[in-house]
Amino acid sequence: SGRLVARLPEWSPQVLGIHAGYASRRQMPPALRALLDFLVERMAADPHWDEAGPLALA
Prior knowledge:
Blueprint lengths: L29 H15 L14
């Protein structure tokens, strides 16, 4: 049927965090800004990430 089948339903993977570090600058490169915005948007849409706390950019 094309559907995924859970083979180990009693097991769940370890939850890992994602950290983004970058040098402090007055002007952030547009590519870096776009990447950080993308990550925040994607993770904020997944309720699983709410358990770790709020997402914020400096």
